[in-house]
Amino acid sequence: MNTMDELLEDMIQDLYNAEKQLTKALPKMAKKCTNDDLKKALETHLKETEGQVEKLEQVCKDLGIKPTGKVCKAMQGLIEEGEEVLSDGKPSPIMDAGIIGAAQKVEHYEIAGYGTARTIADQLGHMKAAKNLEQILEQEKAADAKLNDIAMKSVNREAMQASGPAGRASLK
Ligand SMILES: [Fe+2]
Ligand SMILES: [Fe+2]
């Protein structure tokens, strides 16, 4: 890697592979949700994620680079940890709370990745690419906020209730 353009190319290929992995992982997570709002949020974000794959293909076209060629090892690890949550017993509100945790880790990784790539694209003068990366970044931030909202408003409460007397006693 000798230039900032090459660094940006590497980052975008990493993000492209991460999104591709997510299009396979999100349906598995959604399937296990007992909370309908959470299920819906993951399904909505799956559709957004499919759109992000296309948007990244457009970014690559604009930059004259290929989207493929990298495996995002960080996303592999995050998804593996998400699968641990899913395989740990039967679906329950407590599993839902774990799914939110795993999904928010994914969103935060994406927010970091898109934030950095957007800034570099912007500073290199790739305005169209920067704009598209910014749009994806906003979707990831909204998805993260939505998950936070669902945790606070319903899932964590349901999970504490499902935790037995001790969990219920600490409910505020
Ligand atoms: Fe994404
Ligand atoms: Fe995302």
Describe what this molecule looks like in 3D:
This protein has 172 residues and is mostly helical. Helices cover 83% and strands 0% of the residues. The chain is built from 6 helices and no strands. It has helices at residues 4-31, 36-63, 73-86, 93-124, 127-162, 165-169. It is elongated and about 60 Å long. The mean pLDDT is 96. The structure holds fe (ii) ion (2 copies). One fe (ii) ion is lined by residues 19, 49, 52, 110, 140.
SS strand fraction = under 5%
Query: H/E series, N to C?
Result: HHHHHH
Helix content range: over 70%
The backbone outline, from C-alpha atoms, is: elongated
Number of helices: 6
Name some characteristics of this structure.
172 residues, mainly alpha, 0% strand, binds fe (ii) ion
Question: What's the structural blueprint in terms of helices and strands?
Answer:
Layout: H1 4-31, H2 36-63, H3 73-86, H4 93-124, H5 127-162, H6 165-169
Helix pairs in contact: 1-2, 1-3, 1-4, 2-5, 3-4, 4-5
Bound molecules: fe (ii) ion (FE2) (2 copies).
